[in-house]
Amino acid sequence: MSNIVAIVRNLWKYYIIGNTSVAVLKNVNLEVRRGEIIGIHGPSGSGKSTLLKIMAGLEKPDQGEVIIEGYNLNLLSEDGLAMIRTNIVSYIPQDYGLIEDFTVYENIELPLMLLGLEKRERHIRIMELIDYMGLRGKESIRVKYLSGGEKQRVAIARALTITPSLLLADEPASNLDWENAKKVLELFVKISRDFNTSIVIVSHDPRTLEYTYRRFEMFDGILRPLT
Ligand SMILES: Nc1ncnc2c1ncn2[C@@H]1O[C@H](COP(=O)(O)OP(=O)(O)OP(=O)(O)O)[C@@H](O)[C@H]1O
Fold this sequence. Notes:
Layout: E1 4-17, E2 20-33, E3 37-41, H1 48-55, E4 63-68, E5 71-72, H2 78-87, E6 89-92, H3 104-114, H4 119-132, H5 148-159, E7 166-170, H6 178-195, E8 198-203, E9 214-219, E10 222-225
Parallel strand pairs: 3-8, 3-9, 6-7, 7-8
Antiparallel strand pairs: 1-2, 1-4, 4-5, 9-10
Helix pairs in contact: 3-4, 3-5
């Protein structure tokens, strides 16, 4: 197994805004090592979410490439990209990406159904994750009734159903007060230790960087290491 989980090489992305084409990622390069936590800090609109979505195979770059566990995402079909998302990379969107009317249990169950696990196996895995994330007792509560911190923990539990090599977290602490944000960030540290998962956390809050080992700044589409 290679020590490098992901390589982002010479990545460019443009959006048409009004009548003009605007570069939102400008020659972004990044290597993610196994088991490390990378922090990317930058203001709103600097391109952080766009980078994560491209790394998750949810959007395509205009130039450059992303290689995850040896797979060049540019060369994969839609089925291939779906395989990456169900087996290797988990992306946690800023709005958690949960189904608000479903219970905690049902939200965590969905990806396990996609993986084709039997009901009994699903149950064992769901309860393991519920315990791991400190959500015991909340299984049958609909997500819409949970606090922001609890929703974030359900979103992380769902992302962990596959034990990903790479976990991409978009502003995981931004909707939380700092006490709850710290608990979530400590969980990411625990996950990287327990499963050797590589984690990329993007945030506009510089305090988030305290929980990461290698730090970068994104400004106007340019990614630079922070020293
Ligand atoms: N699908 C899209 N179509 C057009 N423009 C887009 C699209 N997605 C993002 N943008 C623009 O690209 C720029 C970068 O957006 P992005 O969401 O990557 O930034 P961000 O750093 O994650 O900010 P935030 O934290 O506010 O989400 C913004 O100016 C945004 O308006």
